[in-house]
Design goal:
The complex is a heterodimer. Chain A is of the alpha/beta class. Chain A contains 21 helices and 15 strands. By secondary structure, chain B is an alpha/beta fold. The chains are: A alpha/beta, B alpha/beta.
Chain lengths: 513, 285
């Protein structure tokens, strides 16, 4: 209780945190004063040692981690809980969505999913509305999003087809240069025209957004109703993820005595089971004890459906795990550089995928009763452990070899995987070159392709964006975007602004608070 | 220099390049050039190695040796890339150029194909090994029909070379120092007569992607010199894509004539001068 009071005291007297941030952190502190859902001694021990991790989501989750409401249905039917009638004009639709967003929970307390904005809004755009007026309306909407939802995990999707709305969004993005919202372009090699991808590439040059995802691969895993939310989390719409639990492969290998084969045969089944146990306990707590799906209007009005949720099973530290196993086998083969190490890496993720696909979980209809595998891209506290299945920062091979090493993992990770590529700014004079690379990356099996320019004012700390200038003085003066706090810590811990920027953070606040 | 159709003398390969033509391109640099330009950015590509052996002892990583036949041999696995060999070479060459088969390059190319708009052969001078160039492009076209084949050339090639390449060449990027032949000889060590013929010919065939003007401050950047060059280009094709490239010192040998990098303001001025004589598709870098 003394610690609780001391931490609460620190929060309320902080000069760096704003009102909303204090409120959220106090709530998190209170939730963590409750008992954790029951775990077996082995599972509790693994959690305590952080071999497995609950992303510091809090002891008693009151919302699923990621909620993806069916905004199309809401616009069609209205929302009784909010006394909102179906909108008929573009202005009404934008207002309707802004209101609805404010009521969509997630682990960050902000919505992580804004919907497929082009598909949602295009029906409301009159044919005779001039581009300048469309831009002005979307610009106003964009500014509202950034100021009302100041968090870079707030994520909108567009594509795969061309439309006036998506073109307007690129123009607005380039003129505003905001952190919010994060953006994904769904790319279908057959459907998405080159010049739409090129327009998006030009937007990356200015703002570091969007990500480019493999639409056919996503549709094969999730069906047509899916979205990319927060940082690289691909999930079913009208569904989401109850929780994200993750396995630290570096720590797992440190507790294992043998080489690769024994690691796959003996260690991985043990840790995968404990990770799933942790996930199951958290799901049951959310669904059965806290009763989110019985009480929240999104569930009661059919805007989310429990059957379309699942657990995200994350892994990280693959690089350290593989390199350690190679060393034990007497070779200096390195992940990303040597075929033997790459093959070992693919063997490990394949094994984990098979194990996860054999461990049933309750309330996971979204994954047909199983968890979704996710390459977890890190939090600011992960020191000396590489995000997800990435190649360590600064040790990346050339772009083509980099893609060749990472691409074979991508099909195994329906809930998202990411490798961030840094390209020389000479490419700004030849954006078609990036279009070629993006199309190639998807063709060789990448689920997501994210790149950034070395020179950009916007940097991806992990998967979300921050402006370098926003990080200056965060510790003393605070920040407007809640993700900037995570970024400031990540920046200090990983010196990401001085080298290739690759890490990702999850969405929790005050993880050790 | 190797001139057989099946093999070529290759300086190096870059898998992905965004600065050698449209889109992302696989670039092959061929060893050996017919010009000897003051402002050459990679002078070690000008001549084939004469196996003098001067570089062998200088290599800090022991990657160079002389074989029984007296040839200098470079071991890529041992090389640490410090380029001491290039610094000590007095013949504007490199021990690292290798005789490669077309099939070797096709294998290097294969994994990069999904990511590429095409292949560009540069140099050195790409057209100085015309049979190899044609054989390489023919294989690229046969195996990877989505790829385009470009050359980045000094333009010093005759009609027979362009005719040989025509069935397999999509387009060329040609460097032009200036229209004035005396000045051209001072800059490039050779006449520009064939360069001008090449530009005209390629433009007439619809295979001129762009002309590149390398601007050396104080050497070829008088308004009058540039205007005459521009007017001649406009007479060939007034809508031509012209890339104005400001000279940069990087990689360039010590020069008997002082070479200066144009300022951003000077580069902008070159573009203004050119706009005054033609409706060019201008790119300034």
């Amino acid at each position: 209780m003394d610690t609780f009071r001391a931490e609460a005291e620190n929060l309320v007297t902080s000069r760096a945190l704003g009102y909303d941030q204090k409120l959220r952190r106090l709530a998190s502190l209170a939730g963590n004063a409750l008992d954790y859902p029951p775990l077996s001694p082995l599972c509790a021990e693994a959690l305590e040692a952080r071999v497995i991790c609950d992303m510091y989501e809090g002891n008693r989750p009151i919302t699923p981690r990621y909620v993806l409401p069916d905004y199309a249905k809401a616009l069609r039917n209205g929302v009784a809980h909010l006394e909102l009638e179906p909108p008929t004009t573009l202005d009404d639709a934008l207002s309707f969505l802004t209101i609805l967003y404010s009521q969509v929970p997630s682990v960050t307390t902000y919505p992580v999913h804004l919907g497929d904005l082009d598909a949602l809004l295009e029906p409301f755009v009159p044919a005779d509305l001039p581009d300048a007026e469309l831009d002005a309306k979307l610009r106003r909407f964009w500014i509202q999003l950034d100021r009302l939802l100041p968090d870079a995990f707030v994520h909108a999707n567009v594509g795969p087809g061309d439309s006036r709305v998506v073109r307007s969004i690129w123009r607005v993005e380039r003129s505003l240069r905001q952190v919010v919202p994060n953006l994904t372009l769904k790319v279908d090699p057959e459907l998405t025209p080159d010049d739409l991808i090129e327009d998006a590439v030009r937007t990356v040059f200015v703002t570091g957004k969007p990500h480019f995802v493999n639409h056919p691969m996503m549709v094969a895993d999730h069906g047509t109703d899916y979205a990319v939310v927060s940082c690289y989390n691909s999930l079913k719409t009208r569904g989401g993820a109850h929780s994200l639990v993750r396995l630290n492969l570096k720590e797992a290998v440190a507790r294992h005595a043998g080489g690769l084969d024994a690691f796959c045969a003996e260690s991985l089944p043990h840790w995968v089971e404990l990770t799933c146990e942790l996930g199951e306990a958290r799901i049951r707590s959310l669904v059965e004890d806290q009763g989110f799906f019985e009480s929240n209007f999104l569930a009661t009005e059919g805007l989310v459906d429990l059957d379309r949720f699942s657990l995200m099973f994350g892994v990280f530290g693959l690089a350290e795990c593989v390199n350690e196993l190679m060393a034990r086998e007497g070779t200096d083969a390195r992940y990303g550089h040597d075929e033997r190490a790459n093959v070992a890496a693919w063997t490990i993720t394949r094994r984990i995928s098979d194990l996860v696909a054999a461990r049933p979980l309750p309330y996971c209809g979204g994954g047909n009763g199983f968890a979704y595998l996710h390459s977890q891209s890190g939090i600011d506290l992960d020191l000396d452990t590489t995000a997800g299945t990435r190649i360590p920062i600064g040790d990346e091979p050339g772009l083509r070899e980099h893609i060749a090493a990472c691409a074979p993992h991508h099909a195994l990770f329906p809930a998202g995987i990411s490798d961030i590529f840094h390209v020389d700014e000479t490419v700004t004079a030849n954006p078609q070159a990036m279009v070629n690379v993006i199309r190639g990356a998807l063709e060789v099996g990448m689920r997501d392709f994210t790149f950034n320019l070395d020179s950009n004012e916007f940097i991806r700390i992990t998967g979300y964006l921050v402006r370098k200038s926003d990080l200056v003085g965060v510790e003393e003066h605070g920040a407007r975007h809640s993700s900037d706090y995570l970024a400031a810590t990540a920046e200090i811990n990983h010196t990401v602004t001085t080298r290739a920027v690759k890490r990702v953070i999850a969405a929790e606040l005050n993880p050790r608070g | 220099m190797t001139t057989g159709a099946g093999t070529g003398l290759v300086t190096d390969v870059i898998e992905f390049s965004a600065v050698d033509g449209p889109g992302n391109r696989f670039v092959v640099f061929l060893q050996g050039c017919t010009f000897d330009c003051l402002a050459c950015h990679n002078p070690y590509t000008i001549n084939p190695c004469i196996d003098c052996g001067d570089c062998v002892a200088s290599c800090p990583s022991g990657a160079l040796s002389v074989d029984r036949a007296g040839k200098v041999v470079w071991d890529a696995a041992t090389c640490t890339g410090g380029d001491t060999c290039l610094d000590v070479c007095e013949y504007d060459s490199t021990p690292k150029a290798r005789t490669l088969e077309v099939a070797d390059l096709v294998e290097r190319l294969r994994p990069a194909v999904p990511f590429l708009a095409g292949v560009t052969v540069s140099g050195g001078e790409a057209t100085a090994q015309p049979a190899f160039l044609r054989a390489l492009f023919a294989q690229v076209k046969a195996r990877f029909p989505t790829l385009t084949c470009f050359v980045d050339s000094n333009g010093d090639a005759d009609l027979a070379t362009w005719d040989l390449l025509d069935p397999v060449l999509d387009a060329a990027m040609i460097d032009l120092k200036c229209l004035d032949d005396d000045l051209h000889r001072r800059i490039a060590g050779a006449s520009n007569a064939r360069v001008l013929d090449s530009i005209r010919l390629l433009a007439a065939r619809g295979k001129l992607f762009e002309v590149r003007l390398l601007m050396l401050a104080g050497v070829n950047d008088d308004d009058d010199v540039l205007e005459r060059t521009g007017a001649w280009l406009a007479s060939v094709d007034p809508r031509m894509r012209v890339k104005v490239i400001g000279f940069r010192h990087h990689g360039v040998r010590p020069s008997p004539v002082p070479l200066r990098e144009p300022t951003a303001a000077q580069r902008a001025h070159y573009a203004d001068v050119l706009r005054g004589v033609g409706d060019f598709d201008l790119v300034v870098v």
